[in-house]
């Protein structure tokens, strides 16, 4: 994909891709939509990748949450094998409308920083190992 730097959309969901997500996807600087959900990608670290500079829609964990583009609106991570807790830095994604992290192995509690996601309209977290108290800020989210 080295010669496809102008690629805007990469959609390869519901396949049988395995292993880590290729870090060279980070060279696709014009990419606006990445969809890799429903594969067998594994990630135990939320900073495994350094992919995205300007994604608007994404379907897989593209680098550490703290380093993701604040332009990101849709983050689909569902049906992979992502594990670890949701980082506090999730609150930095202030343009996020959709956060779908369902059907993974995510553990821990929902961070309080999620209340910063004032544009969030869809939070999909089913089929994980999330525990702890249900933070009242979730009840105050718009939508």
The tally of domains stands at 1
Structural class of the helix and strand makeup?
mainly beta
- Major β-sheet strand ordering: 1-3-5-6-8-10
Query: How many distinct beta strands?
Result: 11
Pfam family, one: LRR_1
Subcellular location: Membrane
Keywords: Glycoprotein, Leucine-rich repeat, Membrane, Repeat, Signal, Transmembrane, Transmembrane helix
List the helices and strands and how they pair.
Elements (H helix, E strand, L loop, with lengths): L8 E3 L6 E2 L13 E3 L4 E4 L13 E2 L15 E3 L4 E4 L13 E3 L4 E4 L13 E3 L4 E2 L13
Question: Tags for this entry?
Answer:
0% helix, glycoprotein, single chain, 143 residues, Leucine-rich repeat, LRR (right-handed beta-alpha superhelix), six-stranded parallel β-sheet, transmembrane
